[in-house]
Every structure is written in structure tokens, then in C-alpha cells.
């Protein structure tokens, strides 16, 4: 038990601040659609395929053609363009640009997401965050084991009674137990999203990873050159014929010769905010190459598609968003106080005994 306590304290002292950053940024990002501002952000969603095709025609006619377009949704009324190298724009649902950025630092929602998902360090940061999420699972498990011996002293308090080391440690132990289930879910889903082997291991009972990951891999076919004016109305009409009840979510436009136009849709039964129903087209003539229904994909892929919505509170409405907000703020508090008590409120060593000892 002493070794477990030592590992728990040292890991918290070293990585607590990272967990605090992840918790605070996560709590903010859960409500991103409510606080991101640009003209038209609150507009109602237009579901007419012809209107969407006209907007896309207007967007891609710009010399700086985007790589992808994330379409407006019920909670956010603007299309988001990605033009590469950190640049992008928001347009209203007619395709008119209402905001642009040249780097992630121009928009708070962009650098907050990068901080939360990559620690502003790209792929290396993503891997590090996945490792921190695994350490978070260790914190929760070891904390529960150590709490069990002292469970009769449990007291629920949102904040330590005093900012002394014993009071903070007691509060840390008790509030950690209260938050343990949702923190476990947050850390597990975070690790699954950032570390592929973790997702493969957790979902292994549902089938081999190679099988369910292949369900979303693009077709092994090459497309022709992209014309100056693709038939967007024909593409959206063909996709709507395949999935009549689905919403259009993401359009990806090939930059390199041989690439396919891909369209992601969201059907009523899907949890992912951008869906995982996929349709591919030949850029040259708009011919439909392949369509895949997310609702009929292998069980492993079905389960993996629920990981991000659970982590980012994209299901369950406002009540679940509030639960994940509490989890994020709780993680921020626990991580910050752990670092503070470990480095700045360490117990003082007893003063050495001086003087002469009488024989």
C-alpha cells in the first residue's frame, strides 16, 4: 500500500498540471457551439440539398479552394472550411464568408482544441496525452483502493475546509471517489481516441481491429481529374437517394490527382456529430463509386463510433454536457491541488535534536 501511495503522489505531482489543463479545456469545449461567435452562428439549419449544392458551388469557386467543408448543424449555423496549414474560414449557409483565420491563434476555439487534443505539439503531444489518460486511469484505480481503508471518514465537500495539506488530501480523496465513474469514462475514452492500441485492446472482444477499421477505409480506386465546375447538385442528389433521412455533414475535396470526392452523412441512429455514413464519387463525372451505411458496419466500428460522442458530450443533451463539465472542472481542481500540495505544501522534516545528553 505504501508503494501504491508513493506512486500515486509522485505521478500526481508530476502530471497533475497536465490533467488540470485537459480538464479545464475539456469543460470549455463541451459548450463550444454555445460560445463560438461569428455572424450567422445561430441560424437555423437548412436541409435542402439544392441550397447546399449552391453554397458549395459558391465556396469552391474561390481560388483558395478548401480541402474540406464541415456543414452547419442544428447547434451551429455556419459551414467551416479547412484550407490547409492551419488556415480556414466560416461561411453562412449561402456560402458567403463571415470569418477567416490564418492560424489557430486567430480563433480561441481552434487553439483550445489543439491544446486539449495535442498540447500544441502535434502528433507527439497527442501520444503524450494518451499516456497521461492512462495514468489518469491509474490515479482513479489506486485512489479507490487507498480510499477504501478510510471510507468511514468520508465527507462530501466541493472545496477543502482549509487550504492545509491534511484538509486538501482528505478532500482530494473524498471528491475523487464521487467523480471516479465519470473521470474513468473520460480518461478511458480519451486514451482510446489518442492511442490506437488502447482502442484495439478494449474493443477486441467485438472482433479484430483490422476488420472493423476497414469499414471506414476509402475504396482502392483512383478517380479522374477534378473539373472546374463539378456537378454538386448531382452528387448531393445521389447521396440523398442512398440515405434519404441523413444530414450532409462533411465534404472532402481531393487535392491530388486520383483522389475521390468523399461525403460524410449522419443518419438518425448515429451518435457521431459528423456521422460515419460514407459516400465516394469520381470527381470527373460525379459517378457514385461506393456507399457505406454506418448502421450496418461491424460491431467494433459501431462501438468505436460512440467513443468520441461520450468523451465530448455529443449525446445526452444539456444534462450530460453538465455532467462532463463537472468532470472537467473536477479534474482541473484535483490536478491543481495535487501539484500545489506536492511541491509547495510538503510536510516539514522534524528539526534535528540538539543539545547534550546527560549520562
UniProtKB/TrEMBL annotation:
Keywords: Membrane, Transmembrane, Transmembrane helix. The chain crosses the membrane at residues 12-30, 128-148, 175-195, 322-343. InterPro entries: PepSY-ass_TM. This is Peptidase.
Amino acid at each position: 500500500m505504501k508503494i501504491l501511495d508513493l506512486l500515486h503522489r509522485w505521478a500526481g505531482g508530476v502530471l497533475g498540471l497536465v490533467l488540470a489543463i485537459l480538464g479545464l479545456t475539456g469543460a470549455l469545449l463541451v459548450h463550444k457551439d454555445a460560445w463560438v461567435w461569428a455572424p450567422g452562428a445561430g441560424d437555423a439549419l437548412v436541409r435542402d440539398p439544392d441550397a447546399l449544392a449552391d453554397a458549395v458551388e459558391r465556396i469552391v469557386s474561390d481560388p483558395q479552394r478548401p480541402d474540406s467543408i464541415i456543414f452547419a448543424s442544428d447547434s451551429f449555423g455556419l459551414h467551416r472550411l479547412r484550407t490547409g496549414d492551419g488556415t480556414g474560414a466560416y461561411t453562412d449557409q449561402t456560402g458567403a464568408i463571415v470569418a477567416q483565420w490564418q492560424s489557430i491563434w486567430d480563433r480561441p476555439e481552434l487553439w483550445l482544441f489543439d491544446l486539449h487534443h495535442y498540447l500544441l505539439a502535434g502528433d507527439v503531444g497527442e501520444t503524450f496525452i494518451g499516456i497521461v489518460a492512462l495514468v489518469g486511469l491509474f490515479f482513479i484505480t489506486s485512489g479507490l483502493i487507498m480510499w477504501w481503508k478510510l471510507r468511514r471518514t468520508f465527507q462530501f465537500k466541493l472545496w477543502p475546509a482549509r487550504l492545509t495539506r491534511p484538509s486538501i488530501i482528505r478532500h482530494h480523496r473524498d471528491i475523487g471517489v464521487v467523480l471516479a465513474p465519470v473521470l474513468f469514462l473520460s480518461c478511458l475514452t480519451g486514451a482510446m481516441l489518442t492511442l490506437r492500441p488502447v482502442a484495439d485492446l478494449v474493443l477486441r472482444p467485438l472482433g479484430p481491429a483490422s476488420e472493423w477499421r476497414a469499414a471506414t477505409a476509402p475504396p482502392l480506386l483512383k478517380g479522374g481529374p477534378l473539373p472546374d465546375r463539378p456537378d454538386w447538385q448531382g452528387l448531393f442528389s445521389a447521396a440523398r437517394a442512398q440515405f434519404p433521412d441523413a444530414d450532409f455533414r462533411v465534404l472532402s475535396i481531393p487535392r491530388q490527382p486520383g483522389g475521390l470526392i468523399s461525403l460524410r452523412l449522419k443518419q438518425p441512429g448515429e451518435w457521431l456529430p459528423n456521422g460515419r455514413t460514407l459516400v465516394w464519387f469520381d470527381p470527373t463525372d460525379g459517378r457514385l463509386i461506393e456507399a457505406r451505411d454506418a448502421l450496418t458496419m461491424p460491431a467494433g466500428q459501431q462501438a468505436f463510433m460512440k467513443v468520441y460522442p461520450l468523451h465530448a458530450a455529443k449525446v445526452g443533451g444539456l444534462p450530460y454536457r453538465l455532467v462532463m463539465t463537472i468532470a472537467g472542472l473536477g479534474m482541473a481542481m484535483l490536478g491543481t491541488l495535487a501539484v500545489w500540495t506536492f511541491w509547495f505544501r510538503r510536510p516539514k522534516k522534524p528539526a534535528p535534536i540538539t543539545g547534550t545528553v546527560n549520562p
